[in-house]
TrEMBL record, chain A:
Organism this protein belongs to: Parasedimentitalea huanghaiensis
Protein name from the UniProt record: Alpha-D-ribose 1-methylphosphonate 5-phosphate C-P lyase
Keywords: 4Fe-4S, Iron, Iron-sulfur, Lyase, Metal-binding, S-adenosyl-L-methionine
Pfam families per UniProt: PhnJ
GO terms for biological process, alphabetical: organic phosphonate catabolic process
Gene Ontology MF term list: 4 iron, 4 sulfur cluster binding; alpha-D-ribose 1-methylphosphonate 5-phosphate C-P-lyase activity; metal ion binding
Automatic annotation (TrEMBL), chain B:
Stretches assigned to the ABC transporter domain: 5-250
Signal sequence coordinates: none
A GO molecular-function annotation: lyase activity
Taxonomic classification: Bacteria, Pseudomonadati, Pseudomonadota, Alphaproteobacteria, Rhodobacterales
Protein name per Swiss-Prot or TrEMBL: Phosphonate C-P lyase system protein PhnK
Length: 289, 256
């Protein structure tokens, strides 16, 4: 373990990343370029988030890593192991116990506190990329607040699908200034972007860091006659009965029977332990037994 | 009356080659200025200097801004100039693909300028788009098609709709009928003439086609080798050209 500098990156690099983070916090929603390092994992595995976490962690921190809400996927497990080995920090699956949470594609259901930091893995940080591939031009558009194109994208959505079909990476405007891609979280999570915790976003391949300080105003873009809706499957969790959590649809067998389960595994387990049971919880327990 | 546009001593060089130089004219509201000349005479260079796409090496382009009156657009801050570019000004390119978003539907193309200036009601944007498609003779059933599915003439009409939808106070056009078949050109010209009259457009139109200016322009500037060699009322210049080059230009057309 002592073969590594704390959290793998050397101190110079962490300092460089912290400067980018501080700048990001000072200009909420603004994409700060940083010199992304090679990490011992492929791009797409959260190298941006890992570098931000590495620069953020202290030996006293407790780390939680989730992927699509789950602590036990390959990606989450390997990142958690990476920091267990390189930083020796305590890890947890419990959202409330964690001081740093690295996430891919979800915001935990439990309300985060002002002593917690949420680190997002970001594949494509530029919300204007879809319509304007030229980096020089998108930078200028941000600088001059020329954001009409974002609504063109939503217009196209409605004209093709009859509603705003964008359900992930739903663009937001931060403090009435920068338009930001919240990373591919479901739009159900967008309202939670206004929270007490610090939120940091790291894009490794694209070499960008951006941030939301606590209590930052975050508005999801929409039209007056097609207002933003934080939708989810119209169902309760079949395991814990929760009605206000984001659900994954799980295929159960070859006959195509399905169940809906909280994507946040810690949240779901906590509720079940507290005695909340969903429609299929008993069936499932029997199967397991 | 204050001119809408006051062009003073514009010059643009490419290395030591002249793009255009010593260009002066005033454009008054509701006026259409035609700029003619053979290929390479500096028309596009001049137009791009006026529209803020190129930075001239010398001279001023004063525009009658809503808030501050006449103001040099060459030296104004870039955000202000870009703001003009999507509000009070419009630019119609010769090649529609340079002026359209080819991966966005026709309705989205027309709606973009509306959304750029803050339109946030989908239903209203869509009905404005339908209205404008109608005005440029594109069937509203094509509203969700991409411009790639349109003919050249339709693409050019779509580009015009996209530019005029916000009611710009000044329109720049570079060879708007260039590159189209003759029959398609005639229809587009008709349409443009109707719009110019109906909306009382102020415009600067660059073309090498004298038929275009005959139909659309109140006044004419004839360019050769980057210089203006003759200016005057369109009919006057075309019917009684004074400069030898203009005479050649007019007669070469008459021979056709
Ligand atoms: N980007 C450029 N670089 C160098 N020379 C150019 C460039 N654009 C135009 N020119 C030259 O400037 C002159 C005027 O060109 P242009 O304004 O395109 O004329 P027109 O539009 O009348 O055909 C020509 O001699 C042309 O070759
Ligand atoms: Mg030209």
């Amino acid at each position: 373990m002592t073969d590594y500098n704390f959290a793998y990156l050397d101190e110079q690099t962490k300092r460089m990343i912290r400067r980018a983070i501080l700048k990001g916090l000072a200009i909420p929603g603004y994409q700060v370029p940083f010199a992304s390092r090679e990490m011992p994992m492929p791009y797409g595995w959260g190298t941006g988030g890992v570098q931000v976490s590495a620069a953020t962690l202290t030996p006293d921190d407790t780390l939680k890593v989730i992927d699509q809400g789950a602590d036990d996927t390959t990606n989450a497990v390997s990142i958690r192991k990476f920091f267990e080995v390189t930083a020796g920090v305590t890890t947890t699956e419990n959202t409330t116990e964690a001081s740093v949470i690295q996430t891919r594609h979800r915001i935990p259901e439990a309300e985060l506190r002002d002593d917690q930091i949420l680190v997002y893995q970001v594949p494509i940080p530029e919300p204007l990329r879809f319509l304007e591939p030229r980096e020089t031009e998108t930078r200028k558009m941000h600088a001059l607040e020329e954001y009409g194109l974002m609504h063109v994208k939503l217009y196209e959505d409605i004209s093709q699908h009859g509603a705003i079909a964008t359900s992930y990476a739903y663009p937001v405007k931060v403090e009435g200034r920068y338009v930001m891609d919240p990373s591919p979280i479901p739009k159900f999570d967008n309202p939670k972007l206004e929270m007490s915790a610090i939120q940091l976003f790291g894009a490794g391949r694209e070499q960008r860091i951006y941030a939301l300080p606590p209590y930052t105003k975050v508005e999801s873009l929409d039209f007056e006659d097609y207002p933003f809706e934080a939708t989810k499957a119209d169902h309760a969790c079949d395991m814990c009965g929760a009605e206000n959590s984001y659900l994954d649809e799980v295929i159960m067998d070859d006959q195509g029977s399905r169940m809906f389960v909280c994507s946040d595994t810690d949240f779901c387990a906590g509720r079940q332990q507290a005695g909340h049971l969903g429609a299929l919880a008993a069936v499932n327990a029997e199967d397991a037994a | 009356m204050t001119p809408l546009l006051k062009v003073q001593n514009i010059a643009k060089f490419y290395g030591n080659r002249i793009g255009c130089r010593d260009v002066n004219f005033d454009l008054y509201p509701g006026e259409v200025m035609g700029i003619v000349g053979e290929s390479g005479s500096g028309k596009s260079t001049l137009l791009n200097c006026l529209a803020g796409h190129l930075v001239p090496d010398d001279g001023a382009v004063l525009f009658d801004t809503r808030t501050d009156g006449l103001k040099d657009t060459v030296t104004m801050p870039e955000p202000e100039r870009r703001m003009l570019g999507r509000t009070d000004w419009a630019f119609v390119h010769q090649h529609a693909r340079d002026g359209l978003r080819m991966n966005i539907s026709a309705g989205g193309n027309v709606g973009e300028r509306l959304m750029a200036v803050g339109a946030r009601h989908y239903g209203n944007i869509r009905s404005d788009a339908i209205d404008w498609l109608g005005r440029v003779e594109i069937n509203e059933t094509r509203i969700d098609d991409h411009p790639t599915a349109f003919s050249g003439g339709m693409q050019q009409r779509l580009q015009i709709a996209r530019n005029l939808v916000t009611g710009p106070r000044l329109v720049f056009m570079d060879e708007p009928t260039g590159g189209l078949d003759v029959s398609v050109q005639a229809r587009l010209l008709d349409l443009l003439r109707g719009l110019v009259r109906e909306m009382g457009l102020s415009a600067v139109i660059v073309t090498h086609d004298l038929a275009v200016v005959r139909l659309l322009a109140d006044r004419l500037m004839v360019m050769k080798d980057g210089h203006v060699v003759e200016t005057g009322l369109t009919d006057q210049v075309l019917d009684d050209p004074q400069h030898a080059y203009t005479q050649l230009l007019v007669s070469s057309v008459l021979q056709v």
